[in-house]
Amino acid sequence: MATKAERLAGKPVQFIEEATVRFCGDSGDGMQLAGTQFTTTSALAGNDVATFPDFPAEIRAPSGTKAGVSGFQIHFSSRDIFTPGDKVDALVAMNAAALASNLADLRGGGIVIANESGFDQKNLEKAGYDTNPLEDGSLDAYRVYPVDMSRLTREAVRDLGLTTKQADRCRNFFAMGLVYWLYDRSLEPTLNHIELQFGRHPEIAQANTRALKAGYHYGETIEAITTQYHVEKANLQAGTYRNIMGNTALALGLIAAAQRSGKRLFLGAYPITPASDILHELSRHKNFGVLTFQAEDEIAALAATIGAAYGGEMAATATSGPGIALMSEALGLAVITELPMLIIDVQRGGPSTGLPTKVEQADLFQAVFGRNGECPIPVLAAKSPSDCFNIAIEAWRIAVNYMTPVLILSDSYIANGSEPWRIPEVDSLPKIAIEHPLPEDQSGPFFPYQRNERLVRPWAIPGTPGLMHRIGSLEKQDIVGSVSYDPANHQFMVETRAKKIAGIVDDIPLQEVDGPEQGKLLVLSWGGVYGECITAVRAARTAGKSVAHCHLRYLNPFPKNLEEILQSYDCILIPELNLGQLRMIIRGTYLCDAVGLNKVQGKPFTIAEIQNKIEELV
Amino acid sequence: MSRLQSPLPVLNPADFASGQEIRWCPGCGNYSILAQMKKAFVALGRLREKVVIVSGIGCSSRLPYYMNTYGFHSIHGRAPALATGLKIARSGLSVWVITGDGDGLSIGGNHLIHAIRRNLDINIVLFNNRIYGLTKGQYSPTSPLGKVTKSSPMGSIENPIHPLSIAIGCEATFVARSIDTHVKHLSMVLERAARHDGTSFIEVYQNCVVFNDGAWDYAKEQDQKADNIIELEHGKPLIFGKNRDKGIRLHGMEPEVVQLGKGIAEDDLLFHNENCPEPSLAYLLSRMRHEDGFPEPIGVFHCVEKPRYDRKINEQIEQAIQKQGVGNLEELFRSGDTWTVD
Ligand code: SF4
Question: Which of A316, A358, B242, B289 is the most buried (most CB within 10 A)?
């Protein structure tokens, strides 16, 4: 390492365990690109990474305003990490509004790299500053480096014949270059990206390359910045990795599940934030036999999904809370016709249109209960970006083994967040066997509601000779499947559908607990809050507290041993990004008291918030 | 192999009947439509297992239960969307959507529009009785202005819509109309619809004996129909009337009823061209209403070819495979930047 330090023009390199960087600016400033590039670079350098992109709801809000600020946070570490980090160590602010809306998350003594031209009178006014924070001493608690990025970038690209506007578009590369230098990162991955992305426009590729290098050299030479930081490789499990976002992982999981069950994948969807990327990703993989249908609305998306399921394909739909609301009636149809399919809800802030780009976990009731009639649906929730891959395969296994729609809950935090994913061997993925009745198996008439020992009815595909039958939204006579208004039959069918779903409990793993098997406090969580919860609980244990963590991926039915687990602790804490939905279900199901920690600010928990609550309780 | 080589079974209409007891009111027009559908399937040589009938909610939508084919009785208005998913998945099936004026044009209007414009090879049959039957007699989107019903005791104040005008506006490739009791004509229209390569849309005038009896008498009664309907024939002039002495002539952009003879010859009349790529003629025909003093056309209004969604979506898969090769999971997982930890 010393040789490396020597090479670095005399500036000392400080080795640190981990760091959190946030790029923020106008939504047109290219901050998402800066963030993803820095992430890839850090992942390739062997760090564990976790990211948190934060978009404004408007596509291009007026420039320079707080409403238009877009951010991307990267936490990179030489240890195992589970969250994008509570506090930011270095904040890149492209304008005054970006600084104003992000400063609260910067730790004391943290670094501010500010684009000076984004702090002119107009920008200051739009951000609500009376005086320039870069000059008025209000940032004295931080290390502030104002950099005239506009001028430096324009100079770097001067002889390439670009317009000023084009030159200014390279500013994000200058900012990246500077941060790369600060954290001792290689430029190589980003140079490759530039080549790939802009190769057909050599002057733009040149300009971005020069801006990137200019930023890097600026760090090397500017006297104000005295120290460079270095985060060593993390000790990750052996294997091949890639960085993956939750929505991508879900899409790959769906394709894998289709391939492992010998089916074509059909996705019926209507564009909605933050689920659309699943539709986009799958549309790119038609060579896997993936059929993507962009419907006229969510009602049609699910109706078509039901049609494809009836037709014998692996059918799925992906939406967010408002879409699920429109789908409720068709979900009932999927339940009463007992067809296998996946319904993916990437949750966002509600009610109504709510906070379309922000995180919330408030669709749990909707997922478990949100339909007319007695209408049970298995519900699974992914805990992290890479877990979205596993959950898709597991949900499909349950759907076909029990002839039922299965609802998958994700959220905008894990959908857009990313982490390293250890790429599985294809052969290690479960094979999902599916049997369809054949004409030759039929000695007498075909009965669509004749059930097996798990109460599961057969999946007969239209087109098969001899198996003609009718299904539909009216209650059906047990076994034969004709329309039935018989009171006793209805009670029987309602109870049978409920029993079938409850029976899934025998087919899912027992619940695991991280920490002591009994003790003072159990933190019970579900969905995307996994990372903050496990980090907080482990920290509390290190501090000598008797705390365990139990994270649910199966929300309906709950694992068999959950009741026993709940009884093994004096106190149960359920942190949720809602007003206590899991808590109410747990209380109602197990008559067990539980304390809630509830946040609905469109933001994930911080680890500190959970730690504080644990402190308060034990 | 033996199954492939044996001759196709010869079916008769009774083979298409399911055992389920039919629950429509005695005398309902639906019985006749059901019978003509069975006959049409026989005439077409359709195998029962290759036919799927999808419906929504309403009296007409009970039809799948009465056919010994595959059937899916879905939810109100959504049958076209469900049929779309099914046809994409199994493009070899003969998929039929049975809907009504309320199911298809009120609650399901959006899905009907989009199914028609996508032009999948499905057949949509809309039973138009101009009333809500299953909910016991409220006005529907096709009820005439002023119609007195349970929910409009002072008369409906809504302008009715005309199903075929909607279909034509949605770029339909096959548009036709028939009448429940015109059995031969209805069979002919159903057969032609089934043979059309793309979405076919058929409006059938259907009498609801209980809540709107006689709504179509002008088009059905022996003594009235000749003067009130006009049978469309491709390439033929539009002639109607008991004595076939009246015709339709174009006056500028407007149709007009004229008396043949008195200086007006057949050649002066409007000639029907169902294959006209431009749908204006079909639209003009769909606008001819009894209440405005016109005979109402029945038969095939419009029959053209356009790309089929269900074919295209499967073609894109073929193209993607040709271009990128058959998808390989291993490669998919490893796309993008990867790194190895030892
Ligand atoms: S209510 Fe009318 S449409 Fe319905 S079955 Fe009776 S007669 Fe037929």
Answer: A316
Instruction: Confirm or reject: Cβ of B25 under 6 Å from ligand 1.
Output: yes
Architecture of the domain whose range is A519-617: 3-Layer(aba) Sandwich (3.40)
Distance (Å, rounded) from C-alpha B196 to C-alpha B301?
Answer: 13
Is A480 an interface residue toward B (CB < 8 Å)?
no
Instruction: Among B72, B94, B113, B313, pick the best mutation site for testing chain A contact (most A Cβ within 10 A).
Output: B72
In whole angstroms, give the CA distance from residue A294 to residue A317.
10
- For A65-78, the pLDDT digits (tens) are 999 999 999 999 99
**The pLDDT of residue A9:** 52
Residue A430, chain B, CB below 8 Å: the answer is: no
Helices then strands, counting H and E runs in chain B, come out as 12, 12
Classify domain A4-231 at the CATH class level. Answer: alpha beta
Atom of ligand 1 nearest to the CA of B59: 4
* Residue A101 token pair: 């809306």
Q: Work out the average pLDDT over A171-178.
A: 97
Burial grade of B230 (CB within 10 A; 0-12, 13-18, 19 or more): buried
Out of B81, B319, B324, closest to residue A295 by CB: B81
d(CA A420, ligand 1 centre) in Å = 62
- CATH code 3.40.50.970 for A242-428: yes
Identify the residue whose C-alpha is closest to ligand 1 atom 8: B28
A242-428 shares the fold of A4-231: no
Q: Which of A252, A260, A310 to mutate: most B Cβ within 10 Å?
A: A310
Residue A6 sits at φ, ψ, to 5 deg, of: -65, -40
- Closest partner residue to A463 among B93, B333, B337, by Cβ? B93
Residues of B within 8 A of A303 (CB-CB) are: 74-75, 78, 81-82, 84-85, 111
Q: Measured from the CB, is residue B28 less than 6 Å from ligand 1? A: yes
User: Exposure of B88 by Cβ count < 10 A (0-12 exposed, 13-18 middle, 19+ buried)?
Assistant: buried
The candidate with the shortest Cα–Cα distance to B172, out of B184, B182, B181, B163, is: B163
Other Cβ atoms less than 10 A from the Cβ of B188: the count is 18
pLDDT at B24 over 60: yes
User: Does residue A411 carry a pLDDT above 90?
Assistant: yes
Q: Which two tokens mark A118?
A: 């984004």
The two three-digit tokens of residue A228, written as one number: 């460079």
Main-chain phi, psi angles of A383, to 5 degrees: -105, -15
State the pLDDT at residue A418: 92
Q: Which of A300, A423, A465 sits opposite B333 (nearest CB)?
A: A423
Looking at chain A, the whole-number percentage of residues with pLDDT higher than 70 is 98
pTM, 2 dp: 0.94
ipTM: 0.97
Query: Beta partners for A18?
Result: A77
A189: which chain B residues are within 8 Å (Cβ-Cβ)?
A: 337
Residues A331-340 pLDDT 10s: 999 999 999 9
For B133-148, the pLDDT digits (tens) are 999 999 999 999 999 9
- Domains observed in chain B: 13-236+273-313 (3.40.50.970), 237-271 (no CATH)
Four-CA torsion A76, A81, A85, A88, nearest 10 degrees: -30
Instruction: Find out whether the beta carbon of B131 lies less than 6 Å from any atom of ligand 1.
Output: no
Helices of type H across B183-291: 183-195, 217-220, 225-228, 280-286
Q: Which atom of ligand 1 is nearest to the CA of B206?
A: 3
- Could you tell me if B93 and B87 are in contact, meaning their C-beta atoms sit under 8 angstroms apart? yes
- Tell which A residues from 222 to 261 touch B, by Cβ distance under 8 Å: 236-243, 252, 255-256, 259
Q: Tell me the chain A residues in contact with residue B70 when contact means C-beta distances shorter than 8 Å.
A: 462-463, 468-470
**Is pLDDT at B2 greater than 70 in this prediction?**
no
